[in-house]
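Reviewers of the previous submission asked for a worked example of the structure-prediction workflow described in the proposal, so we include one complete record here. The input consisted solely of the amino acid sequence. No template or homolog information was supplied to the procedure at any stage.
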Amino acid sequence: MKKFLLSLFFIVTSLTMVCAKDIIVQDYEALPQKGKEFITKYFANEQFSYMKIDDDTFKKDYEVYFKNGAKIEFNDKGEWKEVTSKKVPIPAGIVPNAITTYVNANYSQNRIIEIQKKSYGYEIELDSKVDLIFDKDGKFKRIDH
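From that input alone, the workflow returned the following structure tokens.
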């Protein structure tokens, strides 16, 4: 019985790995409408480079890359999960106002280079490599080490 279950596990794992694939495309037309609207609103002036679609068995994730080094990760509904922009500031409006206010008051010499939506709220990375954790309302919780 153990051999059967172990064999079944390896077969299912192998099939899942074979079914998952990354697709690289030269435009973002395959991105859900909500993601396209986000790009139009916040990155309209940036030059698109390519998009990587992580097409796994149960869902798709999208990573959109721009020539200025910015990257946006979207879920299968086109909702942003992460925005990274190490060379240029993250566009105003993406970061909640409460978080922007906190960073300006406490880390005025730094800029936000990454924001991630998490189940508990937001994780922010500053250009000084400090990671800050905020709740869903943008209230500061802690520094992440």
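The first strand starts at residue 21 and ends at 25. We consider this example representative of the routine output the project will generate in years two and three.
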